[in-house]
Structure formats: C-alpha cells, structure tokens
Amino acid sequence: MADAVRMDVNLGGIHMRNPINTASGTFGNGRQFEGFYDVGATLGAITCKGVAAQPWQGNDAPRLAELPSAIMNSVGLQNPGVPAFVQTYGTYLQSVVDRGCAVICQVAGHSIDEYVRALELFEELAPFASGFELNISCPNIAKGGAAMGATPRDAAEVMRAVRPLTKRPIVVKMAPHDVAEIGRALEAEGADALSLINTIPGMAIDINTRRSRVARPTAGVSGPAIHAIAVRMVWECAQAVKIPLCGIGGVASGADAAEMILAGATAVSVGTANLTDPMAAKRVVEELEAWASQQGVSSIDELRGAFVC
Ligand SMILES: Cc1cc2nc3c(=O)[nH]c(=O)nc-3n(C[C@H](O)[C@H](O)[C@H](O)COP(=O)(O)O)c2cc1C
What we know:
The protein is of the alpha/beta class. It has a single domain (9-303), classed as Alpha-Beta Barrel (TIM Barrel), CATH 3.20.20.70. 32% of the residues lie in helices and 19% in strands. The strands form 4 sheets. The chain has an 8-stranded parallel β-sheet with strand order 3-16-15-10-9-8-7-4. Helix 5 (179-188) links the parallel strand 9 and strand 10 (193-196).
C-alpha cells in the first residue's frame, strides 16, 4: 500500500490537519453539524459566522432565494455581538480545538472603530480562537454602504488599524473584485493570509410581483455557479502575493477543492454545499485525500499552484 499523503497545511500560522475549512455563515458555528459527523476530529478548520462588537439585527426576510446552481442571500450579518457569541459557543469551540481542528473567528464592523472594538473583545474573551478572519465586505456606514475594503487604500486602512491588536494570525476575507491589487495592499499591512471569494452581488426578480426575490434589490450569489470565477480569482491573487490563500466559492467536491489548490490555494472552504448536504465538508476531505494519493506526491503542499498554463 502506498504511504499516506501528508495533508496538513499552514494557513499563515493557523495549523490545519488538512486543507478543508468551512466558509463563514454557512456552517452555523460548527455545533449544528456535530449530529452528522465529528466536526472537531474531521476538518482542518472551521470559520465562524461574522460577529461584531454589538449585536446586529440583519436584513428583513426573505433572505434566501434558490437559483439554478446557486443561492442568493441577504442575511446582512445578523449576529449577537462578541460577548454573547463567546458565552453561547465558547465551550463548544474550545472542544473543537481540543479535537485538533482550528477555529477561526470572523470579525465584522461598519467602521474602523467597530472592527477595532470587535477584535479587542475577541482578543480578550476568545482564548480558543486559532486566528481571526477580517470580513472587509461589511458595509461602511460613513461611505453610504460601500464595502469597507472596496479599494486597496480602504482595505489597507482597516488592516493597519487592527494589526497591532493581536499576535494571532489574521486572515482577510476579500470581496470578488481587484483581488490582486487589494491582496497586495493587505499583505503590505501585515495580513497573514487571504481568503477569497465572498459572494458575488446579483439580482433575482419575481416577474409576477416585479419585486426582488429577497427583501433587498441585490444580494450575494454563492454556490456551484460561482466556482469557476472563484478559481480564476484565487489564481490571479496567488500570482500577486506571497502569503497563503484560502480558496472559497462553489466547492462541493474533492475535485473542486483540488482545482483551488492547483490554482494556488493553501486551504479551501466549503460553503453553500453545507446547506444542501450536511456531510459535504467531510466528503470533500475524503475525496481530496484520495485525489492527492493518486497524484503520487508525499505532501499536499507539492500540488499547491501546480496548475500548468
Ligand atoms: C447564508 C450565507 C451566509 C453567509 N455569511 C457570511 C458571513 O457572515 N461572513 C462572510 O464573510 N461570508 C459570508 N457568506 C459567504 C460565504 O462565506 C462564502 O464566501 C460564499 O458563500 C462563497 O462560497 P460558496 O459558494 O462555497 O458558498 C455567507 C454565505 C451564505 C450563503
């Protein structure tokens, strides 16, 4: 029998037993999936839902619409605030870490001050966090709702403000545009890793009511329909930066995850697929390992960026 392939990876200081992570907002905070499989003993990491310093109500319902090969969501980052999040999930998340799975806490804010406050609270209250993910797609209240990290300059400003607050790794979750330029700006300000992509803004109109199928005119599209776009952006970003990437977007199989790795990703998150198949992330781990063994390598690291163009 061939020797087992080493599947462990290092996402900017976050040690993962295998490259598979879960995308923020699509996996509860892990606990809801324990009834299906042993999350802590199986995955490389889980990324929690975005949490701000104070609770956010989120957007009105309906928040989800099903589209061909995709879904659209306008959840609006509903969350209970860091203290309530830690109180509800802290013990469980520590048990995830104890089982060998990294826990990445996602930080949300509507302004630089709000990001700073949220990360300060996490730093104080969440010793279980293996690292943080900064979601720079949150709407910036001072700029009429444009994303906080919409330009290289804005993204760099957020990163510069939060970098001194923690020694733990900071992954920055990027919106699906200008990933090379914004990635370079974030790397220059000390980001440890980048994750991409967040949902792609889209619209779906009910032709009888002539209204949006969700409560807002536009919402974020995710799922298999965005996978090829996400792979392209991971590849573009990988050419631009040296820090590791976590590839996200329409990953539903080991083959999808393998594409991300060949395009240059170190880790890969399973998102919308968790909503249609609660076993998806576990299956992706198994299928990815089977693919890696067929490639005749001793470590998954040898396949990163191995795309031939
Ligand atoms: C219901 C839902 C909630 C989400 N919540 C968040 C969130 O809180 N923070 C975030 O950065 N991304 C959030 N996302 C985006 C995902 O993390 C991911 O980037 C995106 O869905 C693309 O991956 P996928 O096609 O595999 O789902 C959410 C996506 C969905 C479908």
